[in-house]
Amino acid sequence: MKKQNTQQPEAINIEEVVGKSEAFILKYKMQIILAIAAIVVLVGGSILYQTYVSEPRAKEASEAIFQAQTYFAAQDFEKALNGDEQGNMGFLQIIDEFGGTPTENVANAYAGLALAQTGRYEEAIPYLKAFDGDDKMVAPGVLSALANCYANKGDLSAAASKFIEAAKAADNNTVSPYCLLQAGLIYEKEGKKAEALKVYTEIKEKYFASMQAMEIDKYINRVK
């Protein structure tokens, strides 16, 4: 006779899922900062660099964002967003004044992350959605932050979708299984066991070398 699984399902705590998402952003904050900054130089290759960054307006924008980035790194999110008394611009003003430059795109990511970190999830969403990039660290970080914002607003379906999108964008053993696990937990919260099983199985089969894979059978068993 097949032995019955007597393991009691663990309660799915959406607050824990959200908290872990915020921890992910903080954990990889410096990598995200460095990668976003690199986009200003690397976007579109050397031809676009000469076309845009060499132009006075784009050059001014790339210089203006430096102090805001410094405040962001120091977790002074209000000054990063709104500037300081010395006249240094914040990300929000940079977005308004330097539309169409690569720096505007970068500032959108920073602004969204800063707003999310200060709990202004509704305000953060448009900026995070406005960011356009495919860097393997920045794009997943922005998408994970967006998922976190949706989760905090109670839009669990959108949150799960963005976590899966972040996992695909990263496609590595560190970020992808983490994001897939968050999506699975949210699916369980919604009662979508088939969807949860699918992402848990992906962790087991594709990201078997990850930390999440070490205990993924526990999650698989409780949704079967």
Summarize the structure.
The chain has 224 residues and is mainly alpha-helical. Helices cover 72% and strands 0% of the residues.
Topology:
Blueprint: H1 14-27, H2 29-42, H3 45-53, H4 56-73, H5 77-82, H6 91-97, H7 102-117, H8 121-130, H9 138-153, H10 156-170, H11 175-189, H12 193-206, H13 216-223
Helix pairs in contact: 1-9, 1-11, 2-7, 4-7, 6-7, 7-8, 7-9, 8-9, 9-10, 10-11, 11-12, 12-13
Considering the chains and any ligands shown, give keywords for the structure.
single chain, Serine Threonine Protein Phosphatase 5, Tetratricopeptide repeat, 2 domains, 224 residues, 72% helix, mainly alpha
Describe this structure in words.
This protein is mainly α and 224 residues long. The chain has 2 domains: 14-154, Serine Threonine Protein Phosphatase 5, Tetratricopeptide repeat (Alpha Horseshoe), CATH 1.25.40; 156-224. Helix content is 72%, strand content 0%. It contains 13 helices and no strands. Helix 9 runs antiparallel to helix 10.
